[in-house]
Structures are given as structure tokens and as C-alpha cells.
Queue: 3 jobs
Job 1
Amino acid sequence: MNARGVVFVHSSPTAVCPHVEWAISGVLGTKVSLQWTPQPAVHGALRAECTWSAPVGTGGAIAGALRAWTMLRFEVTEDPTPGADGERFCYVPTLGLWRGQTGANGDVVVGENRLRAVLAETPAAQVPAKMHELLGTAWDDVLEDFRYAGDGAPVTWLHQVG
């Protein structure tokens, strides 16, 4: 079963852009050429985004491949499919990689067992901070300016070669 998703490279140094394309190409098994545009949130940085279609789990593989380039800021989404939850991965150099499960509308979903564990293991005063961690709030806060700067940017469509 194939899933679909989006890769948002919010900021990349110019010299790293070919490596980003090679990393995504390696996961998808096909040559990837992204359309890079200036990222106004960081002087000299570029941004690109692309949609992809490939087997379930590809979003995590793409995020893992991009994580090797620690100066990037990126997000990778994978839409839910029958039998598989959606996922969103966010990477910010100062915070590292965050992964969240997503519902059909794209909202982050926190499972009941994770919530029960937080309630059982976290002092009451620290529960709000733990909830923000589970929701990826710190990553969203950092990436929001980068997302806004990408409004109206071109999108590349990618499909894995069978």
C-alpha cells in the first residue's frame, strides 16, 4: 500500500541542497530535483517542498535520511492510510527530531497509553510541559516563521519508481 506525504525543507545552505536531493532520491529510488527558492527567514538559505507517493513508512525513512544534515530545518508528513496512522516529523538544529502521530485532518494525535503514562509518571506541575512536548509545540514555534515564508512557493511532485 502506498502512502502520500510532503517534504518541506524550510531552510538549507546552498551547498547542502544537492545532498538533500540525493538523500530523498536514495529513499525513493528515483532521481529527485527540487525547485529551490530563497528562504526570507534566514539570509542566504534556500527552501523547497515536494509531495511524494511511496510505501507506508517512507516518511520516516525520508526524515531519517535528512536528519544526517544537522543544519537543515525540515518537516516530513505522511498521510494516514487504511491500517496505518499518519505521521509528522519535524527537525530543528537546536531541538533535534520530533515525531508525532497524525489523524486524517493532520492534527497531532496522542494515544491514550501515552497520556496515561504521562499522568502516572509526571509530577502534576510538569504535565503541561510534557503535553507541549508530545504535541511538538517547541518545533512548531520555531518553524512557524519558516512556514509563513514559504507561502506561495512552488511544489515538486515525486513518485517512487516501482
Job 2
Amino acid sequence: MSEIDGTEFSVGDPQAVYDEIRAETERVLIGNDEAIEYLTIALLSRGHLLLEGVPGVAKTTIANLLARASGLEYQRIQMTPDILPADITGTHVFREPTGEFELQRGPVFANLVVADEINRATPKTQSALLEAMQERSVTIEGETLALPEPFMVVATQNPIEMEGVFELPEAQRDRFMFKHTVDLPERDEEAELLDRFDAEPTLGPDEIGQAVTPESIQSARRTIADVYVADPIKEYILDLVAASRDHTHTDHGVSPRGTLAFQNGAKARAAIRGRDYAIPDDIKALTKPILAHRLVLNTEAELGDVRATDVVEELVDTVAVPDMDIANLQTTP
């Protein structure tokens, strides 16, 4: 256990970390359980997350809630067409009193960076995040600086905006471990939203407290690294990846980075459910958030109004799931 201001926090238990983050965020968040799950898996797997949804479905709020519940330093970047790469990474500023240039670090130097409406920024500015997301470092005027750990990028985008936006290039999309669509709430969830905000009109992220510590997140990451992935599970991942590359409706399938996302995500998903081994259901549950945004569809698919999610569903239905003895996995080192 670790302690902050008299409050004890679990250390090293991924399931406890997830349960505590979920319980705290649910004080404000209604529904969107999948979003918190994917955010936690990405955080514990050193991944990044792209949240997509129409305006008003709490995309930015979800990221803010995670930051507050996890005790991470949080920075939000409002992406606009006029924002420059240096506005994200930082630059050297001349200080007249000293007559010297001083490094002014940009908002990317935080544990959790929210790139709000990322597709409003130009491709040049979007590319400022490429090095940070992969190498976890930033190069400013020839000097390479390490970013803090944990480090995670959560980006949001609005799928219905057609003007003044720039579609994310494949290299940028591939750096997001998951893409999750935040849907409109069900009627009962929206009714609860009305009641909750009728009782507490100022309810928001400021109302929740820290549920875990950065130390517990780092410890949970080390625990997740030891989760067992059996050879049939790895073969299942490779079969899905190969099928995405050979599909008749794709020009380009999943990259090796996506292959690793399957393995790392399955480990984290197993761990937050209290298992030290992955099962086929862990892979199946992650196919859509891992695959859909990485697929590059061909002209035939576009003419036939075939969506990436349609291809993913077909892959899940057609790729054979390994027949495994789960009881044996529980005793495998």
C-alpha cells in the first residue's frame, strides 16, 4: 500500500487500480464503462487512445476524469488550424535580463496530454506528437528531452465535422493503441444524467478525488508484463493480423505495432479481471478498438459503402478461435 495525505492506495494490483479508477469516475460519469476500461488498459500498457464522438458526449471530460482519479499531471491542448508544433513541444525563449535563451517546455511535458479535436490541427502540427507518442521524447532545436512517466496521449475528434478539419494520416492513427467511439447515451442513462445534474448542477471533474497513485500505476505495469500469453493466443493474433492484410476490401492491414497492441492489451485486460493469463476472449474484445482505425480500405470497399467496422466484424466471425483448455492455463507458469 502507498499513502497520500492519510489515504491508502493499492500498489501493484492492476485489478485494484482499475476498480478504484472506475469507482471514482462513476461519481460523475454515467455509462461509458468501455471508455474507462480502454483508457485504463491503454494507460497500463503504455498506449494512447483516440476518442471519437459527436459534440457533447463528454469525450474531454472522460480524459479529465481519468487524470484526476489517477493523480496524473494533466494538460489539455485545444487543437486549431493556427496552432504550431512549437506550441505543443516548446521552444527556446530569449530572456533579456540574462541575455540567454531558456527552454520553455510545451504542454506535451505532462503525464496525460489531451489533444482536443486533433483533426482541426494541420498535418504539420499533428506530426509534432509522433515522436512523443512512440519514443516518449521530444526533440527541440536538436536537443532530445525525455517525457515524464507515465505518459499518455488521449486525442478527441468529431466525426461529423467536414470543414476545417484534416484527416489523421495513417502514421498518426497507427500510434493510437485504441480508437473508441463514444456513443450517445441510452434513454435511461440520459434520464439519470438529468436527475444527477438536477440535484448537483455544478457536478464535474473537480468533484472527484485521486483514487490511485502514479507509483501504483507503474507497479501495475510491471505486474501486467508477467501475464502469460500462450502460443495458441499468439497464433490467433497472427491469424487476425494476416487476415486484415489479405482481406479483399483492404489496401493495407494492421502493422506490427498493431500486433503488439493485441498482446499488450490482452495482458492488461486479463490483469484488470484478476487473471495472470490471457484467453481468446481478451483478443476478441479488443479487435474493434485495435483494428478499425488502422485498416486502409480500397476503392472497391468505398464504392460498396463497406466500413472498417464491417471488415473487423467479418474477421472476428471468420478467423478460427483457438480451442484451449482454460483450466490448464491457470496452472501454466
Job 3
Amino acid sequence: MTMPPHATARQVIGAAAEDAALAYLSRQGLALAERNFRCRGGEIDLIMRDAETLVFVEVRRRASARFGGAAASIDAGKRARLTIAAQTYLQRYRMPPACRFDVVAIDGDAVSWIRNAIEA
């Protein structure tokens, strides 16, 4: 992803984590549908296709797994915002496809793909 020249260090790190997650999921056979979908209610980092299933992916990165790690950083508020964003995205379909919420957690150099990580 190309970053604007005024991007903060945090934005650059976040974009790199999303790049790594996208590459990882692509190697697992998923195809990108959309990146950084934003709406009034929230944002979804990656929207992928896994065969006929639409996958909403939250990417989290932490320097290490200390203090619970990347996956543990997704709180109830974030889950609610992801659900709202997914509902908004799905409005474009007359008959919405099957979908799920996954998390790609990056702790240091370790990548974990957690399928069905968030109940909607």
C-alpha cells in the first residue's frame, strides 16, 4: 500500500501489517475484495473471498505477545464497530453471501490466522 508523505509512524506500521496479512491470506487461497473499507460506523482492514464466503478481516499487530498479544487487543467496542461496518458493506448485496469475521494477529514476527474469531 502506498502511504501519503504525511503518514505517521503508526500508520506506516499499520499498513505494513495489513500488507503482511494480505500476502499471508493470499498464499492461503483467499482473494482480496476490498481493502480499508470505511463507513460512518467503523472500518474493516481487509475484505476477502474464501470460495463463496465473504471474510471480514481485522489485522492487529503488537511488538510481542506480552500483555495478551495482538488478538487480545480486540475489545467489545471494536467488535461492535466491525459488525456495523460489515452490515453497511453487505447492504450492497441483494442476497448477501455467507460471511465470517477473521483476525490476523501479528505478534513480533509470528502470524496467527484466527478464523471465525468474532461472533456477529
